[in-house]
Amino acid sequence: MNFSELPSADGAWTGLRLAPGALADDTAIDGEAAIVVAGGLVRWVGAAAALPADFAALPRFDGGGALVTPGLVDCHTHLVYGGDRANEFAMRLAGASYEAIAQAGGGIVSSVRATRAADEDTLYVQAAARLEQLLADGVCAIEIKSGYGLALAHERKQLRVARRLGEAYGVTVRSTFLGAHALTPEYAGRSGDYIDLVCREMMPALAAEGLIDAVDVFCERIAFTLAETERVFKAAKALGLPVKLHAEQLSDMGGAALAARYGALSCDHIEHLSAEGIAAMRAAGTVAVLLPGAYYTLRDTHLPPIEALRAAGVPMAVSTDHNPGTSPALSLLLMVNMACTLFRLTVPEALAGVTRHAARALGIGDTHGAIGVGRPADFVLWQVRDAAELAYWFGQRPLRVAVRRGRIASGSLA
Q1: How far apart are the first and last CA of the chain?
Q2: Per-residue pLDDT tens over the stretch 24-65
Q3: 3-state class of 70 per DSSP?
Q4: Using the 8-state DSSP alphabet, how is residue 218 labeled?
Q5: Is residue 91 scored above 90 in pLDDT?
Q6: How many other C-beta atoms are found inside a 10 Å radius of the C-beta of residue 165?
Q7: Torsion over CA of 13, 18, 22 and 27, rounded to 10 degrees?
Q8: What is the mean pLDDT of the chain?
Q9: Nearest Cα to 255, choosing from 290, 224, 289, 295?
Q10: Would you tell me the crossing angle of helices 120-135 and 152-169 to the nearest 10 degrees?
Q11: Residues 357/316, Cβ–Cβ less than 8 Å
Q12: Strand 60-70 vs strand 41-47: parallel, antiparallel, or unpaired?
Protein backbone atom coordinates (compact mmCIF):
# COMPACT_ATOMS: atom_id res chain seq x y z
CA MET A 1 0.00 0.00 0.00
CA ASN A 2 1.21 3.49 -0.85
CA PHE A 3 1.63 5.84 2.08
CA SER A 4 -0.99 8.16 0.63
CA GLU A 5 -3.52 5.32 0.84
CA LEU A 6 -3.07 4.81 4.58
CA PRO A 7 -5.93 5.93 6.85
CA SER A 8 -5.99 9.60 7.79
CA ALA A 9 -5.35 10.45 11.43
CA ASP A 10 -7.52 13.57 11.20
CA GLY A 11 -9.76 13.74 14.25
CA ALA A 12 -9.65 13.95 18.02
CA TRP A 13 -7.35 11.46 19.73
CA THR A 14 -8.46 10.89 23.31
CA GLY A 15 -7.62 8.42 26.06
CA LEU A 16 -3.95 9.39 25.94
CA ARG A 17 -1.24 9.78 28.58
CA LEU A 18 1.50 12.16 27.46
CA ALA A 19 5.04 11.09 28.33
CA PRO A 20 7.08 13.62 30.31
CA GLY A 21 8.77 16.07 27.96
CA ALA A 22 6.50 15.22 25.03
CA LEU A 23 5.18 18.74 24.46
CA ALA A 24 7.11 21.40 22.59
CA ASP A 25 6.32 24.03 25.21
CA ASP A 26 7.51 21.74 28.05
CA THR A 27 4.18 21.85 29.84
CA ALA A 28 2.89 18.74 31.58
CA ILE A 29 -0.63 17.36 31.42
CA ASP A 30 -1.78 15.27 34.34
CA GLY A 31 -4.45 12.71 33.61
CA GLU A 32 -6.09 12.06 30.26
CA ALA A 33 -4.83 14.10 27.31
CA ALA A 34 -6.16 14.70 23.81
CA ILE A 35 -4.59 15.61 20.48
CA VAL A 36 -6.52 17.06 17.55
CA VAL A 37 -5.16 16.36 14.07
CA ALA A 38 -6.35 18.10 10.91
CA GLY A 39 -4.71 18.29 7.51
CA GLY A 40 -1.72 16.30 8.74
CA LEU A 41 -0.90 18.81 11.49
CA VAL A 42 -1.51 18.98 15.22
CA ARG A 43 -4.24 21.60 15.69
CA TRP A 44 -4.74 21.33 19.44
CA VAL A 45 -3.27 19.40 22.39
CA GLY A 46 -4.22 19.54 26.04
CA ALA A 47 -6.22 17.94 28.82
CA ALA A 48 -9.08 15.86 27.41
CA ALA A 49 -11.54 17.56 29.75
CA ALA A 50 -10.67 20.88 28.10
CA LEU A 51 -11.19 19.72 24.51
CA PRO A 52 -12.88 22.68 22.78
CA ALA A 53 -16.47 22.23 21.66
CA ASP A 54 -15.39 23.24 18.14
CA PHE A 55 -13.82 19.79 17.78
CA ALA A 56 -16.78 17.80 19.14
CA ALA A 57 -17.95 16.67 15.71
CA LEU A 58 -14.57 15.34 14.58
CA PRO A 59 -13.94 11.61 14.25
CA ARG A 60 -12.75 10.12 17.54
CA PHE A 61 -9.80 7.82 18.11
CA ASP A 62 -9.68 6.21 21.55
CA GLY A 63 -6.11 5.59 22.69
CA GLY A 64 -7.29 3.38 25.53
CA GLY A 65 -4.85 4.89 28.02
CA ALA A 66 -1.76 4.44 25.82
CA LEU A 67 1.40 6.39 26.60
CA VAL A 68 2.19 8.93 23.87
CA THR A 69 5.58 10.26 22.79
CA PRO A 70 6.62 12.34 19.81
CA GLY A 71 7.64 10.29 16.80
CA LEU A 72 11.18 9.05 17.35
CA VAL A 73 14.08 10.52 15.37
CA ASP A 74 17.06 8.40 14.25
CA CYS A 75 19.58 11.15 13.59
CA HIS A 76 22.63 9.20 12.34
CA THR A 77 22.33 6.28 9.90
CA HIS A 78 24.12 4.89 6.86
CA LEU A 79 21.02 3.00 5.75
CA VAL A 80 21.73 2.70 2.01
CA TYR A 81 24.53 0.33 1.03
CA GLY A 82 25.24 -2.92 -0.79
CA GLY A 83 26.21 -6.21 0.82
CA ASP A 84 27.08 -6.68 4.48
CA ARG A 85 30.21 -7.16 6.58
CA ALA A 86 29.35 -10.12 8.77
CA ASN A 87 32.77 -11.58 7.93
CA GLU A 88 34.46 -8.59 9.54
CA PHE A 89 32.39 -9.11 12.65
CA ALA A 90 33.88 -12.59 12.83
CA MET A 91 37.37 -11.15 12.25
CA ARG A 92 36.98 -8.76 15.16
CA LEU A 93 35.87 -11.61 17.38
CA ALA A 94 39.05 -13.41 16.36
CA GLY A 95 41.14 -10.45 17.49
CA ALA A 96 41.45 -8.06 14.53
CA SER A 97 41.01 -4.35 15.30
CA TYR A 98 38.77 -1.95 13.36
CA GLU A 99 41.87 -0.16 12.07
CA ALA A 100 43.61 -3.41 11.07
CA ILE A 101 40.56 -4.51 9.07
CA ALA A 102 40.44 -1.13 7.30
CA GLN A 103 44.15 -1.22 6.49
CA ALA A 104 43.73 -4.70 4.99
CA GLY A 105 41.20 -3.44 2.44
CA GLY A 106 38.10 -4.20 4.49
CA GLY A 107 35.94 -1.79 6.38
CA ILE A 108 34.28 1.04 4.52
CA VAL A 109 36.03 0.25 1.24
CA SER A 110 34.47 -3.22 1.11
CA SER A 111 31.02 -1.64 1.39
CA VAL A 112 31.99 0.80 -1.36
CA ARG A 113 32.71 -2.10 -3.71
CA ALA A 114 29.34 -3.72 -2.98
CA THR A 115 27.45 -0.43 -3.25
CA ARG A 116 29.01 0.46 -6.57
CA ALA A 117 28.11 -2.99 -7.91
CA ALA A 118 24.41 -2.62 -7.02
CA ASP A 119 21.93 -0.64 -9.11
CA GLU A 120 19.62 1.95 -7.58
CA ASP A 121 16.57 -0.31 -7.44
CA THR A 122 18.50 -3.05 -5.67
CA LEU A 123 19.79 -0.58 -3.11
CA TYR A 124 16.25 0.72 -2.62
CA VAL A 125 14.77 -2.71 -1.95
CA GLN A 126 17.51 -3.59 0.53
CA ALA A 127 17.31 -0.25 2.35
CA ALA A 128 13.51 -0.35 2.45
CA ALA A 129 13.60 -3.62 4.39
CA ARG A 130 15.91 -2.02 6.96
CA LEU A 131 13.80 1.13 7.16
CA GLU A 132 10.69 -0.91 7.89
CA GLN A 133 12.41 -2.36 10.96
CA LEU A 134 13.19 1.12 12.27
CA LEU A 135 9.67 2.38 11.56
CA ALA A 136 8.32 -0.52 13.63
CA ASP A 137 10.19 1.05 16.56
CA GLY A 138 8.32 4.33 16.21
CA VAL A 139 10.81 6.23 14.03
CA CYS A 140 9.11 9.10 12.17
CA ALA A 141 12.22 11.02 11.01
CA ILE A 142 15.61 9.71 9.99
CA GLU A 143 18.93 10.87 8.63
CA ILE A 144 20.43 8.81 5.80
CA LYS A 145 24.04 9.42 4.80
CA SER A 146 25.82 8.66 1.55
CA GLY A 147 29.49 7.73 1.74
CA TYR A 148 29.56 4.24 0.26
CA GLY A 149 29.75 5.43 -3.34
CA LEU A 150 32.74 7.80 -3.16
CA ALA A 151 32.26 8.76 -6.81
CA LEU A 152 29.67 11.15 -8.17
CA ALA A 153 27.42 8.58 -9.87
CA HIS A 154 27.38 6.26 -6.88
CA GLU A 155 26.95 8.98 -4.25
CA ARG A 156 24.04 10.26 -6.33
CA LYS A 157 22.58 6.76 -6.41
CA GLN A 158 22.61 6.52 -2.61
CA LEU A 159 21.08 9.95 -2.10
CA ARG A 160 18.37 9.29 -4.66
CA VAL A 161 17.42 6.15 -2.77
CA ALA A 162 17.20 8.17 0.44
CA ARG A 163 14.77 10.59 -1.21
CA ARG A 164 12.70 7.71 -2.63
CA LEU A 165 12.40 6.10 0.79
CA GLY A 166 11.04 9.29 2.29
CA GLU A 167 8.40 9.60 -0.39
CA ALA A 168 7.34 5.96 -0.33
CA TYR A 169 7.09 5.60 3.45
CA GLY A 170 5.98 9.08 4.44
CA VAL A 171 8.92 9.41 6.77
CA THR A 172 10.92 12.62 7.10
CA VAL A 173 14.34 11.89 5.58
CA ARG A 174 17.30 14.24 5.92
CA SER A 175 19.98 13.23 3.45
CA THR A 176 23.59 13.90 4.37
CA PHE A 177 26.47 13.93 1.89
CA LEU A 178 29.37 11.95 3.37
CA GLY A 179 31.64 11.94 0.34
CA ALA A 180 34.62 12.38 2.68
CA HIS A 181 34.12 9.01 4.33
CA ALA A 182 37.14 7.05 3.16
CA LEU A 183 39.70 6.83 0.36
CA THR A 184 39.06 4.32 -2.38
CA PRO A 185 41.99 2.37 -3.91
CA GLU A 186 42.11 4.64 -6.97
CA TYR A 187 42.96 7.57 -4.67
CA ALA A 188 45.36 5.73 -2.37
CA GLY A 189 48.02 8.19 -1.23
CA ARG A 190 46.19 11.09 -2.89
CA SER A 191 43.77 12.28 -0.27
CA GLY A 192 44.19 15.91 -1.34
CA ASP A 193 43.12 15.08 -4.88
CA TYR A 194 40.11 13.21 -3.55
CA ILE A 195 39.05 16.14 -1.38
CA ASP A 196 39.32 18.31 -4.52
CA LEU A 197 36.85 15.93 -6.18
CA VAL A 198 34.49 16.08 -3.21
CA CYS A 199 34.53 19.89 -2.98
CA ARG A 200 34.70 20.90 -6.63
CA GLU A 201 32.67 18.22 -8.40
CA MET A 202 30.56 15.98 -6.20
CA MET A 203 29.16 18.39 -3.64
CA PRO A 204 28.17 21.18 -6.06
CA ALA A 205 26.52 18.75 -8.49
CA LEU A 206 24.52 16.91 -5.83
CA ALA A 207 23.51 20.14 -4.10
CA ALA A 208 22.27 21.53 -7.42
CA GLU A 209 20.12 18.42 -7.80
CA GLY A 210 18.53 19.01 -4.38
CA LEU A 211 19.89 15.80 -2.92
CA ILE A 212 21.83 17.22 0.05
CA ASP A 213 20.46 18.53 3.34
CA ALA A 214 23.79 18.54 5.23
CA VAL A 215 27.46 17.61 4.81
CA ASP A 216 29.46 15.24 7.02
CA VAL A 217 33.13 14.18 7.20
CA PHE A 218 34.91 11.29 8.89
CA CYS A 219 37.72 13.15 10.65
CA GLU A 220 40.02 10.50 12.09
CA ARG A 221 43.53 9.10 11.80
CA ILE A 222 42.27 6.36 9.44
CA ALA A 223 40.22 8.86 7.42
CA PHE A 224 40.67 12.61 6.86
CA THR A 225 42.78 15.25 8.60
CA LEU A 226 41.62 18.46 10.22
CA ALA A 227 42.87 20.48 7.26
CA GLU A 228 41.01 18.26 4.79
CA THR A 229 37.89 18.41 6.93
CA GLU A 230 38.00 22.19 6.97
CA ARG A 231 38.24 22.28 3.18
CA VAL A 232 35.00 20.31 2.98
CA PHE A 233 33.34 22.57 5.55
CA LYS A 234 34.35 25.69 3.60
CA ALA A 235 32.90 24.23 0.40
CA ALA A 236 29.68 23.33 2.22
CA LYS A 237 29.42 26.83 3.69
CA ALA A 238 29.82 28.34 0.23
CA LEU A 239 26.84 26.26 -0.91
CA GLY A 240 24.76 27.21 2.13
CA LEU A 241 24.79 23.67 3.53
CA PRO A 242 25.01 22.92 7.28
CA VAL A 243 27.75 20.59 8.49
CA LYS A 244 28.20 17.82 11.01
CA LEU A 245 31.11 15.56 11.89
CA HIS A 246 32.18 12.04 12.76
CA ALA A 247 34.39 13.31 15.57
CA GLU A 248 36.76 11.93 18.20
CA GLN A 249 35.68 8.29 17.80
CA LEU A 250 39.11 6.64 17.92
CA SER A 251 41.30 9.53 19.05
CA ASP A 252 41.15 13.21 19.93
CA MET A 253 41.74 14.96 16.61
CA GLY A 254 40.26 18.29 17.68
CA GLY A 255 37.51 17.81 15.12
CA ALA A 256 34.68 18.80 17.44
CA ALA A 257 36.17 22.24 18.08
CA LEU A 258 36.67 22.73 14.34
CA ALA A 259 33.11 21.65 13.59
CA ALA A 260 31.76 23.98 16.27
CA ARG A 261 33.57 26.90 14.64
CA TYR A 262 31.49 26.18 11.53
CA GLY A 263 28.27 26.01 13.56
CA ALA A 264 27.94 22.24 13.14
CA LEU A 265 24.54 20.71 13.80
CA SER A 266 26.18 17.80 15.59
CA CYS A 267 29.37 15.99 16.46
CA ASP A 268 28.87 12.23 16.52
CA HIS A 269 30.60 9.34 18.36
CA ILE A 270 32.81 11.65 20.54
CA GLU A 271 34.26 8.94 22.82
CA HIS A 272 37.54 10.89 22.98
CA LEU A 273 35.98 14.36 23.14
CA SER A 274 38.11 16.87 25.08
CA ALA A 275 37.09 19.61 27.49
CA GLU A 276 37.97 22.14 24.78
CA GLY A 277 35.69 20.35 22.34
CA ILE A 278 32.84 20.34 24.85
CA ALA A 279 33.23 24.07 25.48
CA ALA A 280 33.23 24.80 21.76
CA MET A 281 30.14 22.67 21.18
CA ARG A 282 28.31 24.37 24.03
CA ALA A 283 29.11 27.82 22.66
CA ALA A 284 27.98 26.83 19.15
CA GLY A 285 24.84 24.97 20.21
CA THR A 286 26.17 21.79 18.62
CA VAL A 287 24.46 18.53 19.63
CA ALA A 288 26.50 15.57 20.90
CA VAL A 289 25.25 12.41 19.19
CA LEU A 290 25.92 9.23 21.16
CA LEU A 291 26.19 5.99 19.21
CA PRO A 292 26.13 3.08 21.68
CA GLY A 293 25.67 0.48 18.92
CA ALA A 294 29.13 1.18 17.49
CA TYR A 295 30.63 1.37 20.99
CA TYR A 296 29.13 -2.05 21.74
CA THR A 297 30.02 -3.70 18.43
CA LEU A 298 33.63 -2.50 18.57
CA ARG A 299 33.84 -3.57 22.23
CA ASP A 300 35.11 -0.11 23.07
CA THR A 301 36.03 0.71 26.64
CA HIS A 302 36.58 4.47 26.35
CA LEU A 303 33.28 6.04 27.39
CA PRO A 304 32.09 9.36 25.99
CA PRO A 305 32.43 12.15 28.58
CA ILE A 306 28.78 12.00 29.64
CA GLU A 307 29.19 13.76 32.98
CA ALA A 308 31.12 16.62 31.40
CA LEU A 309 28.55 17.00 28.61
CA ARG A 310 25.76 16.96 31.17
CA ALA A 311 27.50 19.53 33.36
CA ALA A 312 28.08 21.80 30.36
CA GLY A 313 24.48 21.56 29.23
CA VAL A 314 25.37 20.16 25.81
CA PRO A 315 22.28 18.39 24.41
CA MET A 316 22.84 14.67 23.90
CA ALA A 317 21.11 12.73 21.13
CA VAL A 318 21.08 8.95 20.70
CA SER A 319 21.02 7.11 17.37
CA THR A 320 21.45 3.67 15.85
CA ASP A 321 24.37 4.62 13.56
CA HIS A 322 22.98 1.82 11.42
CA ASN A 323 25.79 0.69 9.11
CA PRO A 324 27.06 -2.65 7.84
CA GLY A 325 30.41 -2.60 9.62
CA THR A 326 30.25 -1.25 13.14
CA SER A 327 26.59 -0.93 14.10
CA PRO A 328 24.19 -3.22 12.24
CA ALA A 329 21.43 -2.06 14.60
CA LEU A 330 17.82 -1.93 13.47
CA SER A 331 16.15 -0.92 16.74
CA LEU A 332 16.30 2.63 18.08
CA LEU A 333 14.66 1.45 21.31
CA LEU A 334 17.56 -0.96 21.82
CA MET A 335 19.91 2.02 21.49
CA VAL A 336 17.88 3.79 24.19
CA ASN A 337 18.49 0.84 26.48
CA MET A 338 22.20 0.77 25.59
CA ALA A 339 22.55 4.51 26.16
CA CYS A 340 21.19 3.98 29.66
CA THR A 341 23.09 0.80 30.52
CA LEU A 342 26.43 1.53 28.80
CA PHE A 343 26.60 5.32 29.02
CA ARG A 344 24.49 5.80 32.18
CA LEU A 345 21.99 8.21 30.68
CA THR A 346 18.83 8.66 32.70
CA VAL A 347 15.53 7.61 31.15
CA PRO A 348 14.44 11.23 30.50
CA GLU A 349 17.85 11.97 28.93
CA ALA A 350 17.66 8.93 26.68
CA LEU A 351 14.12 9.67 25.53
CA ALA A 352 15.00 13.30 24.84
CA GLY A 353 17.96 11.88 22.94
CA VAL A 354 15.72 10.13 20.41
CA THR A 355 13.17 12.94 20.17
CA ARG A 356 13.89 16.66 20.67
CA HIS A 357 17.71 16.49 20.77
CA ALA A 358 17.85 14.13 17.80
CA ALA A 359 15.61 16.48 15.84
CA ARG A 360 17.88 19.38 16.73
CA ALA A 361 20.88 17.37 15.48
CA LEU A 362 19.18 17.27 12.07
CA GLY A 363 18.19 20.94 12.05
CA ILE A 364 14.48 20.09 12.31
CA GLY A 365 13.90 20.88 15.97
CA ASP A 366 11.19 23.41 15.10
CA THR A 367 9.01 20.76 13.49
CA HIS A 368 10.00 17.36 14.91
CA GLY A 369 10.93 15.73 18.19
CA ALA A 370 8.06 17.22 20.21
CA ILE A 371 4.28 17.50 19.96
CA GLY A 372 2.94 20.99 19.43
CA VAL A 373 0.28 22.97 17.61
CA GLY A 374 1.22 23.59 13.99
CA ARG A 375 3.77 20.79 13.90
CA PRO A 376 3.42 17.69 11.71
CA ALA A 377 1.26 15.01 13.31
CA ASP A 378 4.08 12.60 14.17
CA PHE A 379 3.41 10.76 17.42
CA VAL A 380 3.44 7.23 18.78
CA LEU A 381 1.06 5.36 21.10
CA TRP A 382 2.85 2.80 23.27
CA GLN A 383 1.31 -0.12 25.12
CA VAL A 384 3.33 0.47 28.30
CA ARG A 385 2.50 1.68 31.80
CA ASP A 386 5.46 4.02 32.21
CA ALA A 387 7.97 5.81 29.98
CA ALA A 388 10.79 3.92 31.69
CA GLU A 389 9.60 0.76 29.93
CA LEU A 390 10.73 2.20 26.61
CA ALA A 391 14.28 2.04 27.95
CA TYR A 392 13.82 -1.05 30.10
CA TRP A 393 12.76 -3.69 27.60
CA PHE A 394 14.96 -4.93 24.79
CA GLY A 395 13.70 -7.33 22.16
CA GLN A 396 10.14 -6.18 22.71
CA ARG A 397 8.34 -3.73 20.43
CA PRO A 398 5.55 -2.12 22.46
CA LEU A 399 4.37 0.19 19.66
CA ARG A 400 0.58 0.24 19.46
CA VAL A 401 -0.01 2.92 16.81
CA ALA A 402 2.32 5.23 14.91
CA VAL A 403 0.91 8.41 13.41
CA ARG A 404 3.30 9.72 10.78
CA ARG A 405 2.69 12.83 8.70
CA GLY A 406 -0.94 12.79 9.72
CA ARG A 407 -1.64 9.19 8.71
CA ILE A 408 -2.07 6.03 10.77
CA ALA A 409 1.10 4.45 9.49
CA SER A 410 1.24 1.27 11.58
CA GLY A 411 -0.50 -0.53 14.39
CA SER A 412 -4.15 -0.67 15.34
CA LEU A 413 -6.49 0.82 17.93
CA ALA A 414 -8.58 -2.35 18.00
Answers
A1: 20
A2: 999 999 999 999 999 999 999 999 999 999 998 999 999 999
A3: strand
A4: B
A5: no
A6: 21
A7: 100
A8: 96
A9: 224
A10: 40
A11: yes
A12: unpaired
